[in-house]
Every structure is written in structure tokens, then in C-alpha cells.
Amino acid sequence: MTNQAMKPVHVIGGGMAGSEATWQLVSKGVPVILHEMRGVKGTDAHHTDGLAELVCSNSFRSDDHRTNAVGLLHEEMRRLDSIILRQGDAARLPAGGALAVDRDVFSQAVTRELSEHPLVTISREEIPSLPPEDWDSVIIATGPLTSESLSEAILKETGEGELAFFDAIAPVVYRDSVNTDKAWFQSRYDKGDTDAERKAYLNCPMDKDQYEAFIDALIAAEKTEFKEWEANTPYFDGCLPIEVMAERGRETLRHGPMKPVGLTNPHNPTVKPWAIVQLRQDNALGTLFNLVGFQTKMKYGAQGEVLRMIPGLEEARFARLGGIHRNTFLNSPKLLDAQLRLKSQPRLRFAGQLIGVEGYVESAAMGLLAGRYAAAERLGGSIAPPPATTALGALIGHVTGGHLISGKGSFQPMNVNFGLFPPIEQPTIDADGNRIKGKAKTPARKAAMSARALSDLAAWQAG
To answer: With 0-12 CB in 10 A as exposed, 13-18 as middle and 19+ as buried, what is 37?
Structure first.
């Protein structure tokens, strides 16, 4: 069967997962019709109609593949020819040990590569219901902002009550509006191989009185009000609004996104700040910086007032204020099989945040696997899921069976982490023959798990 004669796979949703799934399919010679509603219908969070638009942050988080689970996931995806990681690397910005990207350059590159591919057809339309029966292979990767009508159709098919959580977006400021007589450039613990990476973050220090006043203002600020049907929707703990963290305890922020460790204020090096707000470069020009970990549900007017209390941001101009939106996800351990197919309708696969992973890279990773599964099926074969010892395998294991279903609503979104991996025997000797002890044990164990993962991935890939 020629590529032209082969029946296409339909991918619904052009975000991180849908774009990655599309790339994996066409890389195997399978034609794709990619359906994306942005361009004819917008969402509450997106600003463009570009594929793989980054909404929440411009960071793919740690790029350390030896001792960090998300960095390991990066490396596994690179080895499997991920378009998201390849274009992410091409749009990379200085960010210490993290992989941060120019969000516009990144989205434009993914959009261009897919739209110019001869096996990709992009259809700008909303799919308001489950696709027709003659679409015999479909990947639904509509993400956390799945349209209400399609959500209702999916829920009707599954017989499940809706699972949802709120996700918040961090503000972005213009770099030239930050007062560097108070703020300074430095990555935490001076991480990075280049001077640019070691100075990738802008740091705004607070003393104790400033911090306490800031917490008071956060708690008192006017917040977004939820509709009655949204009132009991929980937050995902990995993306809590700063005011929710502040309400959980006055010290929560200074032990979280505002922790003052690993940084020295060159303007006053003998005094340790009580708390520090970090800003990370958001575009290649270096004209925009986002407030790291500062997702918020404050109303726009309150945001300007409260955030300008941060030393160095008194005259800040905002390119984008923070916001909040409602996310939805499936009870995947109950509804999906190991190939990400809906058990009641195996022609339908799901991928991305909709299946209960959290984070850009995790979403793309599930798109990568869904695309490979669908490609193998279309070509008359099949592939097994990656080993549970890999980051990809550990993550898909969580969403398709690794989670213990202890009760209604117990399944929650998850970032990749080493807690999802099978345990490994603790290494006792390092590469130089020295005994590993104390604080060195944890990074040594993580490094061993990463080495095992990449070895097992290579064997899976070769098979």
C-alpha cells in the first residue's frame, strides 16, 4: 500500500501531544489529518492558532538526564526523534540547568515543519462530538481545554463523572521595566555550563517585613470567582496559585518558589534575603521574563498592585497577566488499555494531559507513544509499551494501570518522577571506586536508575 493510498490516522488537537503524535505517525510513513479548532474557535488560555503553543510557562523544566526524571524523559524522547524536543532544543534560552524556550520561535517551528510535511493535512475545525465510525484510527489529544461539547460526548461514552482541576498561568513582565539596582542575574547554585546559563534568572530579594506585607496582600487580594459548578474542583498541586500556597501557611512560599537558597545578592552580599522571587527569560530577545512559580488567580487589577510590591518590580510593565482555567482529564486507569485505547471503542486513542499526565514534556511523551502505537497498528503490526524502568514506561504505567484505584476521583494528574519507577539496588561504590555515603546516596541511586532506563530503552527501541 502506498502512502497516498493508505487510510489516514486522524489526530484531534494540535497541542504538544497532538503535534508529537502527528510527527511520529508521518515519520513512519502514515498519513495524518490533524484537526485543530484554534483558528476558527479560541480557548480561554491560548493566544495564537499555532501548533504546540506554550500557555502556562516557557520551561520544559530540568534538562539533567542523569539525576532528574524529567531530564531523563527529555533524553528518551530525543532518542526517539521527538519533534517537541528537537524544536525545543533549537529554540533554547539560557535557564541554568533547565530547558526553557522562546515560545513563539518554538511554536512557529513546529507549525511550519508539520504544515509543510507532504503526509500532513491540517484541518482547522472543531470536532464537537465523537468522530464518525469510518474514522477507524483516531488520537484525541485535545488537552486540558477540551471543548465542552466534545467533553460531554466523551463522558457519555465512558459513563464517568467529570474529573477536573484548576490550572493557573504565571505573569510575564518586560525586562527593561525590572530595576536591576535591586534585582540581579544568577541561576540557583550558579548552575549551567556557560556564563549565560549561570546568569539565566533575575532575582528580586525581600527582607522579612517585605515578605510579610506581600503575604498579607496576597491573601487579601481580590480573586477570580468560580461558577457554582466549579466550586469543588481541586487544584493540581504542581501548579498551585501563589495565593493558595500563601493561605496554606505564611512560610509556604519562602520554602517553595520564593526560597532564598543558592543565591547571593551582589547589591548586599553580607545580608541573606528572607525570600527571593525569580524571573526566567521568556523569549530569545531577552525582552520578556516570567515570574517563576507565580501562577495566580488574582484579578488583573489586584495582580498589578500586589506584584509591584516585589523589590525590583515597582515599575514593572506586564506583557501578560496571570490567569486561571479549568482542566479536565479521564479516569485513565479504568478507561484506557496499555495502548492508550478506549476500552469501549478501541479505534479511539487518547494522549496528553487529557489522560492524566501533567506538564508539557509529559503530554508530548504520551503523544509520542500514541503516535507510535497507531503507526504500528496502521502498518499491520504492534509494539509493546516501553519498559517500566524507563521514564516513558513509568509514566504510561501510572496512567494505564500503575495507579491503585482506591475510590472515585482518586486518580490525579502526575508529573514524571522517580517514585513511578521500579526500585533499584542502592549503589555502594562510585566510578572511582569510592564508597558512596550520606547525601551522595540519593543522586547515585537516581543516576543508576537513569542509566538503567537508557539501556532498557535502547533494547526496546532495537526490538
So the answer is: buried
Q: Residue 175: what are its φ and ψ, rounded to 5°?
A: -55, -40
Using alpha carbons, list the distances in angstroms from residue 154 to 157, 233, 368: 5, 19, 22
Are 174 and 265 members of one domain? yes
Tell me, what DSSP letter sits at residue 257? T
- Contact call for residues 32 and 25 (beta carbons, < 8 A): yes
Domain match, 177 and 45 both: no
- Co-location of 266 and 187 in the same domain: yes
Residue 456 lies in a domain: no
**Full-model pTM:** 0.78
Q: How many domains does the structure of the chain reveal?
A: 2
Backbone phi and psi for residue 25, each to the nearest 5 degrees, phi listed first: -65, -50
Average pLDDT per 10 consecutive residues for the chain, totaling 463 residues: 77 97 98 88 67 89 95 98 98 94 96 98 92 96 81 82 64 94 96 90 97 96 66 61 91 95 96 96 85 90 95 94 76 91 96 90 98 98 96 92 49 80 90 87 94 98 90
- Domain that includes residue 347, residue range: 9-160+330-420
Task: Give me the DSSP letters along 221-252.
Answer: S-BPPPPGGGTTPPBPGGG--HHHHHHH-TTT
